[in-house]
Each structure stands twice: as structure tokens, then as C-alpha cells.
Design goal:
By secondary structure, the protein is α+β, with helices and mostly antiparallel strands. It has one domain (8-145): Pnp Oxidase, Chain A (Roll), CATH 2.30.110. It is built from five helices and seven strands, in the order ααββββαββααβ. The chain has a seven-stranded antiparallel sheet. The longest helix is centred in the C-terminal third of the chain and has 11 residues, at 102-112. It is globular, with a radius of gyration of 17 Å.
Length: 153
């Protein structure tokens, strides 16, 4: 149990190494954008991390892409755990760049799949010309791991 004099916020933070491990084992996130009326638009996405940036792909005409073109500020959340004492996660606030081109999409797929040797389904491969890459550069990262509290709240 961390020192009780340490603020709880710092007690439950994930270290950079713990965050990297979490990203490697939890490959799905929630991506939040803002729609034209200012309401959150939240979608599930598969992602990969390279050099501190988060990569995803989407169809270029998708609502999330239209939202990002209008306002590139986004948030990501990765989470795990069933009960309060098991909750672990990371929230990323950042700016999203939209990168176009089939080569960029294929590079992002390699990052997302961790350069897996498994071939992509033909249907997925065929969609590359219609897709864009969403590259999120973090401005702020907040993390938590309630298991570090050892049941003491």
C-alpha cells in the first residue's frame, strides 16, 4: 500500500511502463469527438501506439472524421475492471490529425495490429482507399489503477 500521506490521485497513477503494458493488452478505446451541436460523439475504436501517438483508422466520410475536421480536440479512454476496486484505465486528451492515403492507412494498420503476420481480410484491404488515419497526439494523460489502493478507499 502506498504511503497514506501521498494524495490518492498520485497513489493510483500508472507509471509510463504500466501504461505501455496496459496499451499492449487493451487494444480497444472509446474515442470522443464533438458534433456540430457541441454534444459528445463517442465511438469504440481499435488503436495502436507508436512513439507516443495513438493511431486508428476510419472511413473518411464517417461522422467522427467530420467532427475532427471541424474540431481536432479529442479524448480517448481505455479501461478495464469489473468492480470499483479493480478499475484501471487511461484517459488521453489530445489533438487529432487526419492523414490521407492508402500507404498511411496500411502503415496505421500495421501499428494497430502490432505488425501481425496474419493477413488482413480482403474486404478490409479493399477499404483502404476509402479510409483515413486518425493520429492522436496527447496533450494530457490521466491514469488510474484502483488495485493500488488494496481495498482502502
Amino acid at each position: 500500500m502506498p504511503n497514506d500521506a501521498t494524495p490518492r490521485r498520485r497513489q493510483i497513477q500508472l507509471s509510463e511502463a504500466e501504461q505501455a503494458e496496459f496499451f499492449n493488452t487493451h487494444r480497444k478505446c472509446s474515442l470522443a469527438t464533438l458534433d456540430a451541436e457541441g454534444y459528445p460523439h463517442l465511438v469504440a475504436m481499435n488503436y495502436g501506439v507508436k512513439n507516443g501517438a495513438f493511431y486508428m483508422t476510419s472511413y473518411g466520410k464517417a461522422q467522427k472524421v467530420m467532427n475532427i475536421r471541424r474540431n481536432p480536440k479529442v479524448a480517448l479512454m481505455m479501461e478495464a475492471g469489473a468492480s470499483y476496486g479493480e478499475l484501471k484505465g487511461v484517459m488521453v486528451r489530445g489533438v487529432c490529425d487526419i492523414i490521407e492515403g492508402e500507404d498511411a492507412v496500411r502503415e496505421a494498420w500495421a501499428i494497430i495490429s502490432r505488425a501481425s503476420e496474419a493477413p488482413r481480410r480482403r474486404e478490409t484491404n479493399d477499404s483502404a482507399p476509402k479510409r483515413v488515419v486518425l493520429k492522436v497526439t496527447p496533450l494530457r494523460i490521466v491514469s488510474w489503477d484502483h488495485t493500488k489502493l488494496a481495498g482502502r478507499y
